[in-house]
Amino acid sequence: MDPFLALLLSFSQRLSANELTSLKFLCRDKIGKRKLEAVQSGMELFNILLEQQLIASNKVSFLEGLLENIKREDLVLQLKQFVEDGKVKSPDDLPDVHERPIEVICENVGRDWKMLMRKLGMSEVKMERIVAANPFNLQEQLVQSLREWQNWKGKDAKVLDLIKALRACKMNLVADRVEH
Question: What's the pTM?
Answer without folding.
Answer: 0.50
